[in-house]
Structures are given as C-alpha cells and as structure tokens.
Amino acid sequence: MDTRLSWPLEAAKQDDSERFLWNQAGSNLCLDFHGDPGAAQLVVFSDGNHHMALEASCQNFLKQYPDINDIFYATTPPRVISESLLQGGVTIGNLTINIKPHVFISPKPILDNLIDKGLMTSHKAFARSRCNVLLLRKGNPKNIQTIADLTRDDVKLTLSNPVTEGASHMIYRETIFNIAKEQNLDVSTFESLLDKAANKTLYGDNIHHREVPQAIFSGQADVAVVYYHLALRYAKIFPDHFEFIELSTKNHVQTDYHIGIIGDGGEWGQKFHDFMFSDTVKELYAKHGLTDI
After folding, report:
1. 1, 7, 3: which is closest to 237 by C-alpha?
2. Range of the domain at 188
3. What whole-number distance in Å separates Cα of residue 149 and Cα of residue 151?
4. Residues 152-188: pLDDT tens digits?
5. What is the CATH number of the domain that holds 219?
6. CB 3.0–4.6 Å: which of 2, 125, 206, 224 could bond 256 by disulfide?
7. Cα–Cα distances in Å, from 245 out to 120, 146, 157, 233, 251?
8. Interatomic CA distance for residues 31 and 45, integer angstroms
C-alpha cells in the first residue's frame, strides 16, 4: 500500500509532452515551487494555503500573455518566502535558485513588514477565506462530527505548527475556542489539547497544506481543522481518501490575502497585480472555495 499521497502536477505552464518527471516521496519531493525559474519572466512568491486558486490564476494569465513564457511561483508559508526574498533566492535541500519575486502575496502583517523594510510601497487585499472545517478520512471511520469529538481518547488531531505557521495556527485555534464557547464546552480541555508541550496534538513541521492530508492519509492522525478551500481541494483531487464537515459557528475566523509589488515589478508585475483583482480571478477563487473582499 502506498504510504505517500501522489500529488498532481501544479504549474502555470502545463506541458502535454512526455516529459520525464522525477521525485522520491520519502526523501526528495518538491511541491511548492512551480515552473521554470530560468525561462519565467514573472516570479510570484505567495503563501500556500490558496495555492490551488493561484495556480488557476497563473494558468489563465499565462494564456493571455504567452510572451511571459512561464511563471515561476512559490506557495510556501510566509516565513519561507520572506526569508527567501531577504536572502536573494530560494534554497531547496542542496539546490539554490538565485531569484527574486516581482509580486508578493500573503496576509497583511507579512506585507506590512516588507513595507517597513523598504521592499514594497503598498498592498491591497484581493481574496478572503470562507470558513474552517473538519478534514476526515473517507468514510469517517471514527464518526467524528463536532469539535467535542476532538478531545476523545481515540481521536488524534493534527494542526499547523504554532511556531513555523503561526498565522494559520491562530486561525484554527480561535475557531476551536470560539465554537467551544458557543457550545458551552470546557475551553480548558481544548487548551490542554492544543498545548504543544502536552504532545496531544500532532503538529506539522513547516507546510501544513501538504503535511495535514499526509498525516491523515498515513494514519498518523484522524482529523484536522483546516480552511474550507484546502479541504475542498483535497476532496477533489483525492476523492477516495478525504471528506470534510463544515463547522457551524456564528464567528467564522477568516484570513484576508493581500498582494503587492516588489520594487518596480519588472515588465509583468503590475499587469499580474491588476489581473488578480479581475472578475476572472474572483470567479476562479470562488470556484476553489474562497471569496473576494
């Protein structure tokens, strides 16, 4: 039985030829750097939680402007792309790519920091997450229905890392606590569940939008709290492995995604920035479970 998920090709430029593809899922797998950095005339650094909608947007933009040749885009947690920008390139294992982005996408605090460092002059929100859900193994073998089930002894929860992915972790944490209060559950029980030192919850290392589904697929965990658009993506591309339950709450905790230009944006940065506010992108993001501002 396979122990690793087989992710589909994700890139702005979809090659129909019989190109040789290589990876070893146990030790050498690169999923969040897309495209040909040598040929691309547009480079986009983005946080990764909405990678499926960004991929569709990049594909559409490339079709409109084929002279770009390719778009090289990164979809990692903000810390990774921020550090890569500051050091002037991306290091992936033993591979270093000296490349700088023309466009940067992330939550507001990340881009505010880039303004403070003089790397960007302004930014603006263009998309928003919808809500958060429980991601489950197909068939829901442990009959997990509400957040109350997260505290059961036979249920293992997995979440994004509170240190390396603080932004998404706080979204999920606040969601759990808000619902617990609404349902008159013991909040201290959930505080204990999420206490990293207590080791009751399985935390990923760096990239939860890949690690969370892998943990559930491999049996290391039974359930996760994730963005609706992430769960929708997993259920679409791995329909035999995942399903999800929307969480009912009066206070959905959401994330706004901002976009700004690095430096002068090169030849294509401004055009891509403007394109991300178009009706086309709004429709693409809605298709993938997000909303516009």
Report:
1. 7
2. 132-246
3. 5
4. 999 999 999 999 999 999 999 999 999 999 999 999 9
5. 3.40.190.10
6. 125
7. 39, 8, 15, 14, 17
8. 14
